[in-house]
Amino acid sequence: SKEKASNSRDPLRDLGNGKNKESDHPKVRRESSKQEDDLQDKIEFRVSFQKESKEHVMMGKPNQTLLSVVISYKVVKDKMKNRKGISLIGKRNFNGYANLGTLCKCLPANGLFELVFHNEEQMYRSLDETSPEKKSVLFHVDTSGRRSGRAGTSLAKIVRSTMLKESRNKFCVFAFEDETIYEALCKDGRFLPILQNRRWKLVENGITYYENKLPVSNISNKTFEVEVSNEMETGQQEATKPEGNETVFQCPEDDLLTEYQSSLIKKNKEQFSEFLAVKGKGKKEISTMKIFKECFGKKICERIPARLHEILAERKKSVGYLVWDNNERKGSASCFHLAKGYILTCYHVILDIVGEGVEKAHWPAVIHHSTRVNFHYDNENEIPDDKWLPIALWDLIAGKELDYVVLKLETDPLNFPPELISKEYLPPFNGLVYIIGHPEGHEKSTDFCSIITYMCREEEVTRRLSDGQREGCTHTSCGYKAPDENCIHLMSRQHFNEVLSSDVLTYDTSFFQGSSGSPVFDSKGHPVALHAAGYLYQHYGNKQSLIEFGPTFKAIL
């Protein structure tokens, strides 16, 4: 249900370009960033582009990261265009792939990096506010690990990126002196979480072993392989707390066919065991793995009172199909009529309509010229052409944090649908709620949803995330774009902070894209929330969502 673009931060913010200077060397072009006060305190390094001989001089403050410095230069922005990410490979006085979260104060004098553009998501270590004050350590790890077992050793996949795995360069790992080897690699951002749940150690020159509980201060400037045991970690170390926006990444993919067959066998075995248990006890038991079904554990009441059907049938007349076409930027969402021609939908829907880089002063005009609403899309094969209503040109009423916006219809009041809001209703604490909207842009429909109570949200999200990530990340289970898009193994506990707010109602639903802006009703047909968002991922080719939520009308009004 979330039409908004991933809320990941945009590192290519405009920091200014300044003026360019030419150095005395004919092959060196000196680039200048906006912040060049106190040049004597800045760290200088050089960057060359793939297949180019020029060296671009760049400068950053000691506690700035490599990424923030490099992408602030216009020469990088111009070349990056539609590419998703960059890699920096040490070519002089620095070895291997640099972690883009490395602080400039850790760089050697006169260091040179080769900059490579790619279409993989950025993977690097995120830092908290206190991290830059600590002393740091650099060491190197081979991108191909090895697995130890009774049958000897074999190669083990330990890194996320296919591109980096296939290269012969090593990772330069950036860590702080008070961290263990285990913490350093788990926080690095480029390694698979196999390192979090398997026994492993570092091996130097094939003969010297370092346990991962040792401090990184003992291994500065050394080079290692990671040897992973087939045994699971017993008394597993407490999971490292992610820093900043750091993500917990996917599990390893060893052999696609074998893993797929194993997952099918395991799944069938679990389902058969459940069947026997249900048959023996004479009642249904809900498996934790039902998170992977389309409605992920949704409990639907089998008997809905006829009076409620009648109430919802009346309420649906106020629900609209919102569509836009802004210079070939097309999409759809849901909305509903509040009163007197005012309609409510989600703030992120408006962001999708206007696009990036448009000043808020121009939003009303863009929406007015590109957007319209139809309250009569009840049949999949027919949208009445004479029922489209335009959006008026007026100042928006919006709340970004609660993800809502109020628009106004530009039409005769006689064409207004029934009013939906007459007073403020409190959301129920538990039980069922009912969503009416246009999921995936289809005809108007209703979904019956089980509430996830406020007191149980954190525990339920943690459990579902753990259950979902227990299965390995493969192209079969997570899709061919895994782990780049819509993969549960990219989610971490930190992504779900907004659902812990008392200003939102949480529930399970199968209403995904196109349904943002749908009203949520209680068992008496009272509107109690605005359906806004969810956490989508792919599972064996099907769209799933970990949890769905929307701001309550009590919070909005």
From TrEMBL:
Bias (Basic and acidic residues): 1-13, 19-39
Protein name: Family with sequence similarity 111 member A
One GO process term, biological-process aspect: DNA replication
Region (Disordered): 1-39
Lineage: superkingdom: Eukaryota
Database matches in InterPro entries: Peptidase_S1_PA, Peptidase_S1_PA_chymotrypsin
PANTHER family cross-referenced by the UniProt entry: PROTEIN FAM111A-LIKE, SI:CH1073-475A24.1
Gene Ontology CC: one annotated term: chromatin
